[in-house]
């Protein structure tokens, strides 16, 4: 489809060998983005562009693969990863702190805000030689499933510009799907990488909670948030994840786990050398409910056959607490958000309402003007769920159900991993969303229908397990995604299986 499909390694190699100038791909990306901006119905994937970042000095590190990291990230990118993204333009969701560009979270309350430090993931991608192509549009603070909740205008779906790209990382997904950039960073609190990846027809990965540093990721719901990656192929998304993953002393929830070879796992899977053969893949029956569009179901069934063609054994499993996932998520995420967003008071960050006569008035005016309707709704929901008298009934209960949902996964996976029970599975396969991309404006007045588009993705965040969405076909020209879920820290097996499935679906000889 696009010229940049699955080419990250090739692009970096061309820069490292001097075949093209260090800023070649960035300039190319910029002219595509600008051409799209003057199109009839622009995608509006970006909120700001990394023009300044292309200065001579900025590119020195790209070629050497040095990017000058120090402190927390010093020395993390050595060997194969140094230069892995040399000169490759990467789109970055606007809730990740960057020095050279504003970080707005698509909110009026942070309009024009510049962070005094850079997110660890951004530093790591620079250390690998990557260049920030720009900051992408999103639902305000990550709250939404369509990118329509941006204070700065909607993003359109490249497959059909009258439809949403999904959200909340809609700008990143659309930019990759349209071939404006080869890969991008997003964040996934309840599906915000996987869901727009599915609706735009690209690959999106949400890693295990703790795999990637959240330092410099503006907090939405801290116990659920993870930075994730987009690419046009499993290999590209996996490579970017490998670059950004790893322990960071600046994030107390980042894990001390070694980062595995992910790009290589994807290549092996794609070449049919590993991935699906001998694997047991579970299909959770609760994910194939009435909510699922029959046309999406048809693509899903074909993908299940493709899993078997690739050598996997497929088995139905049950995750009985699945039906509680959306209500549980929509208690916990707003509760955490209401607490995290208390910091936007007109004093510490961003915009301040003028003319306030008291501190209270300053808070009220700033927050009333600064937050959009969905953010206000979440703060109200979260504050209510946490208030005295209701805390046990809502927040306390939701925490208990969260444990049950995680236990469902532990049961189906642990049996296999521990090797004791015969009915365990290595991986799970589900649809990513119940339906393809919906029309712009179709669900904005009905928040519950919007929340339900996350029905298959929030479970992974509640449990903390990794998930990946990849294209499995189209319905009336609109992309459909399939989701692979893996046990905690099982990214390598997940990526290998996804790449193998991608190969079978594209008819690549195994
Ligand atoms: N759509 C979900 C929400 O609105 C998830 C968003 C996300 O993953 N950031 O909360």
Q: Could you walk me through the main structural features you see in this protein, from its secondary elements to its overall organization?
A:
With 510 residues, the chain is α/β, with parallel strands linked by helices. Among the domains are: 8-261, Alpha-Beta Complex (Amidase signature (AS) enzymes), CATH 3.90.1300; 324-394, no CATH class. The protein contains 16 helices and eleven strands. It has helices at residues 8-16, 24-37, 56-64, 120-127, 170-177, 194-200, 234-244, 263-270, 294-309, 325-340, 359-370, 373-386, 392-418, 447-451, 458-463, 491-505; strands spanning 46-49, 89-93, 131-136, 183-188, 203-206, 226-231, 280-284, 313-317, 427-431, 467-475, 478-485. The protein has an eleven-stranded mixed β-sheet with strand order 1-3-2-4-6-5-10-11-9-7-8, sandwiched between helices. The two termini are 22 Å apart. It binds glutamine.
CATH fourth-tier homologous superfamily of the domain at 8-261 = Amidase signature (AS) domain
- Which shape, going by the Cα principal axes? globular
Q: Which ions and ligands are bound to the chains? A: glutamine
Low-pLDDT stretches:
52-76
For the record, what CATH class of the domain at 8-261 applies?
Answer: Alpha Beta
Strand content: 5-15%
The rounded distance between the terminal residues' Cα atoms is 22 Å
Structural class based on helices, strands and sheet pairing = alpha/beta
């Amino acid at each position: 489809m696009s010229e940049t499909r699955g080419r990250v390694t090739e692009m970096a190699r061309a820069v490292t060998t001097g075949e093209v100038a260090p800023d070649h791909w960035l300039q190319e990306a910029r002219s595509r983005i600008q051409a799209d901006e003057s199109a009839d119905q622009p995608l509006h994937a970006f909120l700001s562009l990394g023009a300044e970042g292309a200065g001579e000095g900025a590119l020195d590190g790209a070629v050497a693969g040095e990017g000058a990291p120090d402190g927390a990230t010093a020395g993390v990118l050595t060997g194969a990863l140094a230069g892995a993204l040399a000169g490759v333009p990467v789109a970055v969701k606007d809730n990740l702190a960057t020095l050279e560009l504003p970080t707005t979270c698509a909110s009026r309350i942070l309009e024009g805000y510049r962070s005094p430090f850079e997110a660890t993931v951004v530093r790591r991608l620079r250390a690998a030689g990557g260049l920030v192509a720009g900051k992408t549009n999103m639902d305000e603070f990550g709250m939404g499933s369509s990118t329509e909740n941006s204070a700065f205008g909607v993003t359109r779906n490249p497959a059909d510009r009258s439809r949403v790209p999904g959200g909340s990382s809609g700008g990143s997904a659309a930019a990759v799907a349209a071939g404006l950039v080869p890969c991008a960073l997003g964040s996934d609190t309840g599906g915000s990488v996987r869901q727009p990846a599915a609706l735009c027809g690209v690959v999106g990965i949400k890693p295990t909670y703790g795999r990637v540093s959240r330092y410099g990721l503006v907090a939405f719901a801290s116990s659920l948030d993870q930075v994730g990656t987009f690419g046009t192929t499993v290999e590209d998304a996996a490579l970017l994840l490998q670059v950004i993953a790893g322990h960071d002393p600046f994030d107390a929830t980042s894990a001390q786990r070694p980062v595995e070879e992910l790009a290589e796992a994807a290549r092996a899977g794609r070449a049919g050398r590993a991935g699906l053969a001998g694997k047991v893949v579970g299909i959770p029956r609760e994910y194939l409910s009435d909510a699922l569009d029959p046309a999406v179901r048809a693509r899903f069934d074909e993908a299940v056959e493709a899993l078997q063609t690739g050598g996997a054994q497929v088995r139905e499993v049950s995750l009985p607490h699945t039906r509680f996932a959306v209500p549980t998520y929509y208690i916990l995420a707003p509760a955490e958000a209401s607490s995290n967003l208390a910091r936007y008071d007109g004093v510490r960050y961003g915009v301040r309402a003028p003319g306030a006569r008291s501190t209270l008035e300053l808070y009220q005016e700033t927050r009333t003007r600064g937050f959009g309707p969905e953010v206000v709704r979440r703060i109200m929901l979260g504050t209510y769920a946490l208030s005295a008298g209701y805390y046990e009934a809502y927040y306390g209960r939701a925490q208990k159900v969260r444990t049950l949902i995680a236990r469902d996964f532990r049961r189906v996976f642990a049996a296999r991993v521990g090797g004791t029970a015969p009915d365990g599975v290595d991986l799970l396969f589900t649809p990513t969303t119940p339906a393809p991309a919906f029309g712009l404006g179709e669900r904005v007045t009905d928040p519950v229908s919007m929340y339900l588009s996350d029905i298959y993705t929030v479970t992974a965040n509640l449990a903390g397990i990794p998930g990946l969405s990849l294209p499995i076909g189209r319905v009336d020209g609109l992309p459909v995604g399939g989701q692979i879920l893996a046990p905690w820290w099982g990214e390598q097996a997940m990526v290998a299986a996804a790449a193998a499935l991608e190969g079978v679906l594209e008819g690549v000889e195994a």
